Amino acid sequence: MTSALPARRYCIAPMLDWTDRFYRRFARTLTRHAWLYTEMVNTGALLHGDKMRHLRFDEIENPLALQLGGSEPADLARCARFAQDWGYDEVNLNVGCPSERVQSGSFGACLMLEPALVTDCVKAMRDAVSIDVTVKHRIGIDKVESYDFVRDFVGQVADAGCATFIVHARNAILKGLSPKENREIPPLKYDYVYRLKQDFPALEIIVNGGIADHDAGLAHLARVDGVMVGREAYQNPYSLAVVDARYYGDDRPAPTREAAMRALRGFVEAELAAGTPLRFISRHVLGLFQGQHGARNWRRMLSDSKLLKDADWTLVEQALAAVRPNELETAE
């Protein structure tokens, strides 16, 4: 990681169908420093599909990582080069997704059972690019619950030159649980992640899983190098407004909810002019006024299919007007 980039003290997790370029552009109106991650993109989609659709982003989204799914070292190396050429700051290998669809492609969490293959993948990617190559993984697979398992996995992959590990502090259950259940049912074992940092002090260890508020996130930072937050960052996006101050010491005033939305206007209007329906963007901002008077009006107006049909920025203005005047508040 170059000195020009902020530390990975706060990262927003890659979330399928959620962290697309529209969400990431919105998130950047709320935090300058947090690391953003794409949805997982499998190597086949990049090598044989529409690169523009999968790789396109606005440079304001940086620092930004491309998360890849795959298990063929040569294919991952080619895709890592795409990431570097397109201007991503990091390429991340998914070794944590437990879905059966991903397993059928022989990648995701099942790769934890093949650390030698993961090592080959990381080596190939690192040989291909100068940007950081990182790995996101679980602490165990199915009923394999020994700390030694994840310790040995990290140690072997680190020998390939990987210096950053993002650790979801739950086991992955490969059969019988849905991806959603895999995020909730296996117990969290943060102590495993803390032990990894103790055993590998030179590595950058980032904890992921179940982090619901900033107090919890900052408590983790006493033990590891960074936190990765998923659902809370998406469903309560205004929580991002204090990230720069609390995690990075940036004392510039946080934007109000209305200011954050208005900062998105130029982007929205450019996308509308290019033919993007407003609903592609509006679905990501529905939680902006969570907990505030008028939040229901905001959600209703920006999720109503009839109102969204052929809608432009005027609908956003109408939705803002429907929220009670509480935007003099600052972030808490």
List the helices and strands and how they pair.
Blueprint: E1 10-12, H1 21-27, E2 35-37, E3 41-42, H2 43-48, H3 51-55, E4 64-69, H4 73-86, E5 90-95, H5 100-104, H6 115-128, E6 132-141, H7 147-158, E7 164-172, H8 179-182, H9 190-199, E8 204-208, H10 214-220, E9 226-229, H11 231-235, H12 243-248, H13 257-262, H14 265-273, H15 279-282, H16 295-303, H17 305-308, H18 313-321
Parallel strand pairs: 1-2, 1-9, 2-4, 3-4, 4-5, 5-6, 6-7, 7-8, 8-9
Family: Belongs to the dus family.
Active site: 97
Keywords: Flavoprotein, FMN, NADP, Oxidoreductase, RNA-binding, tRNA processing, tRNA-binding
Descriptive report:
The protein has helices at residues 21-27, 43-48, 51-55, 73-86, 100-104, 115-128, 147-158, 179-182, 190-199, 214-220, 231-235, 243-248, 257-262, 265-273, 279-282, 295-303, 305-308, 313-321, and strands at 10-12, 35-37, 41-42, 64-69, 90-95, 132-141, 164-172, 204-208, 226-229. The protein has 2 domains: 10-248, Alpha-Beta Barrel (TIM Barrel); 257-321, Four Helix Bundle (Hemerythrin (Met), subunit A). It contains 18 helices and 9 strands. Helix 6 packs parallel to helix 7 (147-158) and helix 16 runs antiparallel to helix 18 (313-321). 41% of the residues lie in helices and 14% in strands. The protein is of the alpha/beta class and 332 residues long. An 8-stranded parallel barrel has the order 1-2-4-5-6-7-8-9, surrounded by 5 helices. Residues 327-332 have low confidence and may be disordered.
Short characterization:
This protein is 41% helix and 14% strand. By secondary structure, the protein is α/β, with parallel strands linked by helices.
